[in-house]
Design a protein that fits this description.
Elements: H1 15-24, H2 27-35, H3 45-53, E1 56-62, E2 68-74, E3 81-84, E4 87-93, H4 100-107, E5 110-117, E6 122-133, H5 137-143, E7 152-166, H6 177-207
Antiparallel strand pairs: 1-2, 1-5, 3-4, 4-7, 5-6, 6-7
């Protein structure tokens, strides 16, 4: 018997989930979505652009026993790279050296990436499998963001099985410090220019 799911969205919509959807009244709508093929499986241009803008994401794994674990990953925009239509990868920077993610992936490759853009209130869910690559310095070097002050220990490669987006409902709108600082700096510069112009105008009026 094949383990291949009937629909890509079956990675999330298990029989138990579908039973609950039926009980709560949402199964019919999702069945129509499944008839159209389910969730997307390839990284299109819009998703690639979204990923390239992110400076943060969450990586979920689980042990062989099913104990879940979520770890935050951060870096400069573009540190999570699109290698091809179904593959993501990133340099795994040295951290607190607990290695829970690596331990989980060594016995259970199933993984999940969650990206959220608070500014534009967008979020993307990506299901797949991941593996840690320790013995490929060329790959790690290629994934390492240029000029970023972090020590890469290894690479993590993520194969996409399916992905979907969420509506913006209930996402709080937050701004990045760097973006706010840029706006404030531009405002302060403009204020300084106007004050200088006003001072020159006052000098001219006084002279007259």
């Amino acid at each position: 018997m094949s383990d291949t799911p009937a629909y890509s969205s079956d990675v999330g919509f298990t029989p138990t989930v579908k039973a609950i959807q039926s009980r709560k009244g949402s199964r019919e709508a999702y069945a129509r979505m499944e008839e159209k093929g389910g969730w997307r499986t390839g990284i299109d241009d819009d998703l690639a652009a979204f990923i390239g803008e992110q400076t943060s994401f969450f990586l979920a794994t689980a042990s062989a026993a099913g104990q879940p674990y979520i770890q935050h990953r951060g870096g400069p925009a573009g540190f999570l790279k699109v290698l091809d239509k179904t593959t993501l990868a990133f340099a795994d920077f040295a951290g607190n050296r607990q290695f829970i993610t690596q331990g989980n992936l060594s016995e259970n490759p199933k993984a999940y990436i969650f990206l959220i853009d608070y500014v534009h209130r967008r979020r993307v869910k990506i299901w797949g499998e991941a593996k840690v690559i320790e013995d490929d310095p060329a790959l790690v070097a290629a994934l390492m963001p240029r000029g970023y002050k972090a020590r890469p220990e290894q690479a993590i490669v993520f194969k996409v099985a399916a992905w979907d987006t969420n509506c913006p409902q209930h996402i709080p709108q937050k701004l990045d410090v760097a973006d706010v600082a840029a706006v404030i700096n531009a405002r302060d510069q403009r204020i300084a220019e106007l004050e200088a112009e006003l001072a020159e105008l006052k000098k001219h009026l006084t002279a007259v």
